[in-house]
Structures
1.
Amino acid sequence: MLFTPTALFLIFLCIFVISLIHYQHQNISLLIAIIKYNAGNVQSVQYALERLGASAVLTNDWDTIAAADRVIFPGVGHAGSAMPYLKNLDLHLKIPTLKQPFLGICLGMQLLCQHSEEGDTPCLGIFDTKVKKFENQKGSDFKIPHMGWNAIVPEKIPLFEGIQPKDYVYFVHSYYAEIAVETVAQSHHILNFSAALAKDNFMATQFHPEKSAAIGNRILQNFIQNY
Amino acid sequence: MLAKRIIPCLDVKDGQTVKGVQFENLIFAGDAVALGTRYAQEGADELCFLDITATQEKRKTLSTLVKRIAKHVDIPFTVGGGISSLDDISAVLEAGADKITINSAAVHNPDLIAEAAARFGSQCIVLAIDAKMEKNEWYVYTHGGKKRSPYKLFSWAKEMQERGAGEILFTAMNQDGMKNGFALEATDKLAKMLHIPVIASGGAGKLSHFEDLFIKTSAEAGLAASIFHFNEIPIPTLKAHLKTKNIAIR
């Protein structure tokens, strides 16, 4: 009796609705702020979050950023032009005071380091490491920028739950952060470099989770749900 | 180690994927965004959309298409087709494309590549070269392969690299749509000569053609269209095959 097609259908429908409510509750109830500044392709991060069922606001308004449950600091661009822009909004002083889970991506990660060789730029100094330019050693013939899918070796932290060593993620960069105590994932191109850094509530990836298919989606989902 | 990339290319006309043989006789192959999304799920490493719609409202329709792609696709994608100014590039990047590709416009105005690289960064500027082998020389063609330019492939590619192109998409017109394999010799010469990545295009018809491309040349990526659109070679099958040959594949 219980297993008539109609009953089965109703049971599955209930499970579906409950999981849908649960799923939406987990993602949509959070306020995610994406820091808007003079860097390119920040919209991709917003779309990626929407695909996960979360919603995010793109803003440079400090009150909105400070009140958010999660803050994402994305960006493709030049450190030397991004820092003056952040300074103009006092964000270089305010960002380090944030206490909620924070995710820097690509240039966003590099700006959280001590210093970048790109435009000889002092950065925010949250991570105790320096950003250098990839240089081919004598006889080596690596392409620069490091662009494409490369494997990472992640440490066991909540951000990388479900991510295996040698999973591939998408990189586009000519500068890299040196390995430091805060390194939580490594990758290799010419040399080993920081694919991800983490310290307290600050996390950052050199690669683009928003462009890294299923692996990237899982990392973004972990950032939303595991903290 | 960077993985070799497999890039399905979608020629788009009014939002629909189309495919011709040697740039002619167009056949429709479905909604471009739906197809691109499917390829991403199947393991494509990147997508390339070339818009061949010719309308007055070109820039607007292209932006709408790019926005739709960006919302649905979770891998990097390149957009091209009639991009001829910094404003065109800006519109496409703002709509969400990761890279843009320029072909004819660079031949008419080689400074465009330098200006675009300075403003948006080399990493998002892909120079597309359609070239045809004639009397032992590879000549650069423009206008969808209809017009021969005075430039020769290798010197042109080198010059464009120096001006700031971040990647070269080399289409061997003699091979395009013929399914006889990539132009291996020219591709390898280009890839070895340049310090920016080379994407080979034109001629893929069998699994072994991609194997040859990655084993016999230094190209970073292989691009193809019809074999994917008509499901002659499913992407998962292709990638599994290349992995058995010890090629670095995601």
2.
Amino acid sequence: MSVEIWTYVLVGITFAVYLYIGYYNRVRDTRGFYVAGQGVPAIANGAATGADWMSAASFISMAGLISFMGYDGTVYLMGWTGGYVLLALLLAPYLRKFGKYTVPDFVGDRYYSSTARLVAAIAAIFVSMTYVAGQMRGVGVVFSRFLGVPITWGVVIGMCIVAFFAILGGMKGITWTQVAQYFVLISAFMIPAVALAWTLTGNPIPQLSFTFSDIVPRLNQIQVDLGFTEYTQPFSNKSMIDVFCITLALMVGTAGLPHIIVRFYTVRSVRAARYSAFWALFFITLLYTTAPALAAFARYNLINSIHGKTVTEIQELDWAVSWEETGLLGFEDKNGNGIIEMTPDTTTSEIKVDRDIIVLSTPEVAGLAPWVIALVAAGGLAAALSTAAGLLLVISSSFAHDIYTRLINPKASEAKRLLVGRFTILGGIIVAGYFGINPPGFVAEVVAFAFGFAAASFFPVILLGIFDKRTNKEGAIAGMLVGLGFTGFYIIGNRFFGMPAFFFDISAQGIGAVGMVFNLVTAFVVSRLTPPPPQEIQDMVESIRSPKGAGQATHA
Amino acid sequence: MREYWKKNQILIAVLLTIWAIVSFGFSIFGARALYSIKIGSLPMSFWWAQQGSMFVFVILIFVYARVMDKLDKKYGVEEGDE
């Protein structure tokens, strides 16, 4: 069977499974719709969090990014895993004990303020919306690359699938679909990586062959011979302080992203929240420790099979020809000596590589069967759809629960609340689909903004809300304004108006770490200068610190 | 309850110190200093940055969940069976 038929078969089967799971888990009340009835087992929630977290970008682009950044790629590896330690130790268990539906619920209740609730809801919608547009685009790209379907139709198909299980099943449907999607995406990532490790080093475990084989030293040698720095050389693209700030901003941003936090509201108990953070990071780390191995192997393999070869020799490689057709791989004998050569200077280098090719081409490069290539397509779709669904639920709950039910119409009946929730998911899908078809040119900038935003707003306010009883409404609002104001000003100025990175040369990606510190300090100081929070709020903080009685938490 | 919370905070401080040492210490600020030492065939700081620190993160969360189970029991704040 050809790759295309295999792809139709595997994508068809996985989609049918997602639809079935969505139908089977349809819900009838808002508690099921927003927090899956708080009945998700720790390990299942861990797998769902993994799928929720690992987006089209983690699956398709991250290994490629690392392969071009070398050592400095650690900003993504540590930045997108280290935040789970903060989440597990500082936030998740207490938010589960608090036991309502959303992040703005906590901010609004803890700081006894509708303004704080509204600001948090708008921030959650903004952060999630910027993210979800990229996921819909990812769905369209996978469809067009593997099946030749136009991007627009790919996006529309993706929208229909997500709409079905998210509207019908809410958080419950999304959770169990994500569990299935995790297994699709992790096998799609691991099978080619294991095969490539086996072919290159004779050791099938990528983490071990990465550490103990001689591939990386050989890659270092090749890089030096070609005039690059060593692959493992630190800070060849970014300064040390910038690597530190980006890593910290991504870690703290991860811990502050509403669609991740809300996953920990869905488990049965405080204890389950702690263990499900462990399972989540375990499942994520499986992919995240494989990615750097894949990055180095694929780079080595690519340079080795193309550099210094003649044009006719390269044209004998089937995968090189088929990827040249997609435009992701290019080779041109610019100096006319009959040999293709790679150099650090892009104007003279005769090899052009798109970073997405690192993951997408691995099965072909390793000479795997067509069904593995089809599996990678299904994996990319699983990664994009699961993340999109999680984000859409946050958009829906922020609007329908935090803004509509809590602020506009508190007397709405249960049935009406559920209906509004379903309609806002539909609205979110349509807007996300629109941006997937017509992507705004600034998506990359906006993602940096999403992390900086989450780091400088949610994380410090939630952290102080749990660990510092004295933090009051005035402190929290002032802190959020200073954190968001500084981070927003810096990113927008730097990315859009050519403002120099004046703060110790820290890039826009890393500035959220500084915004977070400003937020923390401001909130702390302002709280000390203004009256303490009311007694009942202090009692509430006391109660979320104890796991006892999480099952009976009330639901407003 | 006061004592329970104090112990929880100490545990968090200890685990986050380890978290900071492996990620920021070994992998970023110590990147050049640990470069010439090898783990397998990789420079030690590179191994910490792209493998080791992530393994440590997973272990830290597991240890936290385990120790908190014990603390919850000891101070009688564990949840009932659900």
